[in-house]
Structure formats: C-alpha cells, structure tokens
Amino acid sequence: MMKKIIDQLLLVACSGVILFNCTSNQETSKAYDEKMKEEDQHSFARPDEAVVTHLNWDAKVNFKLKKIQAIASLTIRTSSEAKQLVLDTKDLAIASVMNGNNEVLEFDLGEDLPFVGSPLTISITPQTKNVVITYETSEKAEALQWLEPSQTTDKAYPFLFTQSQAILARSWIPIQDSPGIRFTYNAKVQVPSDLLALMSASNPLEKNNTGVYEFAMKQAIPAYLMALSVGDIQFSTLGDRSGVYAEPSVLAKASAEFEDLEKMIGAAEYLYGPYRWDRYDIIVLPSSFPFGGMENPRLTFATPTILAGDKSLTSLVAHELAHSWSGNLVTNANWNDFWLNEGFTVYFEYRIMEAVYGRDYSEMLALLSLQDLKAEIVDMKAAGDFKDTSLKLDLAGRNPDDGMTSIAYDKGYFFLRLLEETVGRDKFDAFLKDYFTSNSFKTMTTKGFIERLQSQLFDAYQLDIKPEFYEAWIYNPDLPENCPVPVSDKFENVDKALATWISNQSKEELAASYGSDNWSTHEWLRFVRGLPDSLSKAQMSNLDEAFGFTATGNSEVFDAWAIHVIANQYEEGYEQLESFLVNTGRRKFLMPLYREFVKTPEGKEMAKAIYEKARPNYHFVASSSIDALLEM
Ligand code: BES
Ligand code: ZN
Predict the structure, then answer these.
(1) SS3 144
(2) Residues with Cβ < 8 Å from 96, sequence gap 6 or more?
(3) What are the structural domains of the chain?
(4) Residue located nearest, by CA, to atom 20 of ligand 1
(5) CA dist., res. 179 & res. 221, Å (int)
(6) In testing the pocket of ligand 1, which one of 165, 264, 294, 590 has its CB within 8 Å of the most ligand atoms?
(7) What is the pLDDT of residues 485-523, one digit of tens each?
(8) Which residue among 282, 288, 291 has the greatest number of ligand 1 atoms within 8 angstroms of its CB, and so is best to mutate?
(9) CB under 8 Å to 191, separation ≥6 — which residues?
C-alpha cells in the first residue's frame, strides 16, 4: 500500500512543468536543488507544488492530558499551478485548517500508513501564502516522551522531551517532514509555570513566572531538527557562546564534564569554518532519552550516561557539535543518504578529538569503531541484512530506523579516512571546508557528493582515481580490503595484557607490566570487549574482584561488561544489570544486552521479566525495537 502511494507521489512530482514564483537568487538555489534532487520515500510532501518556508508555532503543553494543543501557522511558497499543500502527520487530531485571512480551507487526512503516517492534503491556490492548522497530539505521539516526576533524576517535577529524527516530527507538528525541506520558525510555548521550556532555537536562561516562552530559529532547518524539552531545568554558563542545561542536581556534574566544550568549538571552527548557529548549548536529559545525543540545532540533547565524572565519554559532545556542520548545515537529502550525515560527523568528531586531546586519543576511538564495524557486519550478514551494509541505502517501504546502523557511522568514517589518506590531509581538509561552506543550508545526495569529490578533489588536483575506488565503498556491501587500520600503542599494550590475564589471571601483573592502574576508559573498553565470549564463574568473579566492573560508574564499560554477565550467567552481576536496564533508555546500550539475552530460552525469559519493569521508562524508539526483538 505504501509503495503504491509513494509511486503515485513520484508520478505527480515528476510530471508537468511546474514554475516557481521566485527571484533570481532563489532560481540559482532551485537549479541546485533540482540537480541534487532525489525523492524522499518517507514523506508525502510535494515541495515542487507548495513548500513550507516558515513555521509559527503557538502551543500549550498539557501534562495532565499528555498532549500538546497547538496552532501551526505555515508560510508557504507555491508554484504557479499549485492546488494542494501536502503535509506529513502521524496520529494528529486536526481541528481546523484556514488560510491567512481566516477562511476555511478544505483538507483531507489520508489513511494512516506504517511508519510514515497520514498525508494531510490541503486545498490551496497559487496565491495562498499562509495555512493555519489547529490541532492536538495524541497519547501515541511517537516523538514525545512524557515523564512522571519519579522518572526524572530529581523526582520532583514532570518532564517532556521530543525526539524527531528520523520521521517523528510529524507526530507533534503537521509539517513537511523531509530532510530536504528547510524552514525557519518562531514559537510561543505555554508550559506549567514551575517548568522551563527549551527548543532547538534561541532559548531562555531561566524560568519566568508566566510559563510562556518565546523562541526563534532564524536559520532554516529540516523538520527532523525540531525539538522541545520541558522540565525543572537550570542553566550554567560554560563560555561566551556555550552552556549547559540540566535538572538541578545534575548541573554541577554536567558543567564539569563539559568544561572543554569551548575548546572543541574552537577546534571545529579552525578545521571546517565558522560555527553558523550563534550559540551551542547542551541539555542533559533524564536517563530515558533513547540516544546518546541528538544534534538539535543550538541545543544538543544528551543522555546522562555520558557523565562519567572524568570527561572520558565526551567525544559524544564532539560528535553532536560536528553535526552543526555535517547534517545541520549540509543535510542528507533523504534517509538513504544517512551516511552523509553520520559518516562525515564521525570523521569530524575524531578530528576534533585529535585536535583537543591528541592523535593517541582519537586513534583509540577509531579502533573501537573498527571493532564495532566488523562485528556489525558479521551480525548483519547473519541476520540476512547484508544489503544494508552498503553506505547508500534503499529504505523504500521500510522504517528509516532500519538504516540507522553503525555502517553509516563507522564505514562512513573509514571511507572518508581512506580519502584523507589517499589524497593527503591538506587537500582533503580544504575540500571538506569548501564542501561545508558552499553547501551550507542545503541538502546533499550521495550522487552529488561523488560529483563533487570527482571534480573538486580528484580532478582539481589531477589525481588519477577511478570511480571503482569509491563506488565499492559506497554501493557495495561489506568492508573493502583497503580499509585503513588505526594504530594505537596503548591498545597493543592492552591486547598483550589481555593475553597475559587469560593465562594467569593476575591483577598484580597487569598493573606491574601493563600499567592497568592508569588505564583510560577506552583501554578498559578494549580489554572488556576483548575478553573471550565464554568465561567460567571463577574467571568472572576474579575479573570483577580485581577490576570492579559490576560496580563501575562508567556506562560504556558497564555495558560492555554486562554482555559477559548475560552470556556467562554471572549472577553476582544481575542486580546491577537489572537496575541498568530499568534506569537507562539509551537504545545503543539496551539493544546489545537484550540481543544477548534472547540467545537462550532462559535468557529470553529473564529479559521479558526485566523488560516488563523497564518498558514504562523507555521512549518509543527504544521500546519499539525491543518489542520486536522480544516478540511482545
Ligand atoms: N543523529 C544521531 C542520533 C539519531 C540517529 C537519532 C538516527 C535518530 C535517528 C546522533 O548524532 C548520534 O549519532 N548519536 C549517537 C552518538 C554518537 C557519538 C555516535 C548515539 O546516540 O549513540
Ligand atoms: Zn550523529
């Protein structure tokens, strides 16, 4: 059914000559967009006919009903033959649709299709400039997570946050929810007067006593970057243009953890050009936030699981910051090109980390990535998803979430690193800087990138590089043999230590010969991940007594350890494991653990029992993945 609708969409979008009312400046960007264009299979929008350019959002956040009641006033640009404006919606109750003169417009809310929701088709004329939609969200709104006070860190006030990427913005705003369509926005949001509201926009620094907050995002963004957070939130400054928001009890820890943020912003600008979004703030959300981080412009959303106390997990901040260029400035045109967002961002992230903490540090990150990537390819092959191990995806008729694997991130990273190593860092950096500058606030397709790579890099420097070189990386599954291999003396040391430990299990020798007392989080991660799959009870206990893995406060190390706890039925670790699963909503941590559980029937039973307690704490994007895994 969806395929049929999409095919129809393609037909309509491709047929007929559609003329835009536009100035010559827009003409240029239109010519550009045409060239770069590929259809977005996950949006009903028909931007060639009528496209949203600005959103004015007037909303009331109702915690009692767990609903947002809102008026979305859209400014649109129409073609000379426009008859309809098509928006994406999911589970929205539409009360009325009017034009800017308060005249009622006819509309049709289409059938609700899996993943993509219902098209909202509004009758317009080429003269229609504004469309005003009064609506409310439903209890099912997939982007929204409403938390009871007990589900927050401080347990005193309720909390709401959104997660719009990839295609969930449509569950709280009727909008053209396609990464290729950008608009500016203003918002006025009414929340309970004891709470603060924040958006991916200019933000207040503190509560006022009215509970009404106003926002402006003057740079055009795609819908997946729409974001809102409401709670008992305080702010602390980190530098001239950065700061951190969090619940009161988390604020001090968060601001200590992110003390290097200004350095990261400086390093990023030095590498690839000015930061274009004025401010960069981070909000640390309650623990049910389903991702490590989300690059909402001006306000990164982050999981509290990166607060390790020693700054050791802050590469995540470098990652979300890097998205301010890769993703937010130059945006994947559709979700099949997701690697353009994430692969570039991982590359950029490691360059920031290298600039701030040195090459030794960034090489450890890169090696952990390579390990992840190889494991992911083996798993995907086994699961029959081998096709999805190519960078360019085919997500037609599927949930775009299916493509959000470490392939886009890590294979994307290694491809860009290979390019760097092939042409030399100076040339590659100049190419990237220009890529970000000349495509700012635009979209990019894989094809567009390849053309640019050929002309601006290979041809410009007369490098004889054949298309087969990059095509294999982009269009073929698996990992090409010329994948770069990061070098880390520290990890070589850990690997030797591992071999020693496996043979004699001596903590003293690890400390004396391999310096394990001073290992960083990344060395411990290498160690824990390198442990054999099968360990005896005695070996597990020895490890735990020696290194305190079960009691570690480091979420990444615990997550890696917990795999062994499950695989080896290490009962001493169960209590912590359950508490971790119940209190953490970050999908990247949860999925490997639940996957490990379901490998045995007893494990699956245990997983189900824990999940029953944990599920109310998970956001839709996590619970929907785990529901499927546990066949709930
Ligand atoms: N944009 C992503 C998160 C995302 C991807 C949300 C796809 C929805 C769909 C974000 O930038 C990200 O990659 N987060 C990672 C952290 C990172 C350090 C790899 C995460 O959440 O683990
Ligand atoms: Zn990312």
Answers:
(1) strand
(2) 104, 133, 134
(3) 2-140+153-229 (2.60.40.1730), 233-324 (3.30.2010.30), 332-487 (1.10.390.10), 531-630 (1.25.40.320)
(4) 292
(5) 8
(6) 294
(7) 999 999 999 999 999 999 999 999 999 999 999 999 999
(8) 291
(9) 61, 197, 211, 212, 213, 230
Q: Which residues are catalytic?
A: 320, 409
pLDDT of residue 38: 77
Which residue owns the Cα nearest ligand 1 atom 3?
A: 294
Kindly give the distance from the C-alpha atom of residue 537 to the centroid of ligand 1, in angstroms, as a whole number: 36
Q: Which residue has the tokens 């704490």?
A: 617
What is the per-residue burial (b if ≥16 Cβ within 10 Å, else e) of 387-419? ebbbbbbebeebbbbebbbbbbbbbbbbbbbbb
DSSP state of 210: S
3-state secondary structure of 199: strand
pTM of the model: 0.95
* Percent of the chain predicted with pLDDT > 90: 94
pLDDT in tens, 141-193: 999 999 999 999 999 999 999 999 999 999 999 999 999 999 999 999 999 99
Q: What is the CA radius of gyration of the chain?
A: 25
Specify the residue with its C-alpha closest to ligand 1, atom 10. Answer: 294
Token pair 């417009």 in the structure block, residue:
105
Give the Å distance between the CA of 562 and the centre of ligand 1. 22
Q: Distance between CA atoms of 206 and 322, rounded to whole angstroms?
A: 27
d(CA 165, CA 178): 10
Helical (H) or strand (E) element with 205: none
The tens digit of pLDDT for each residue in 80-119 reads 999 999 999 999 999 999 999 999 999 999 999 999 999 9
Contact (Cβ atoms closer than 8 angstroms) between residue 245 and residue 268 = no
Query: What's the CA-to-centroid distance between 408 and ligand 2, angstroms?
Result: 10
Question: Which pLDDT score is estimated for 37?
Answer: 60
State which residues have CB under 5 angstroms from ligand 2, the bound ion: 342, 345
| d(C-alpha 549, C-alpha 305), whole Å | 16
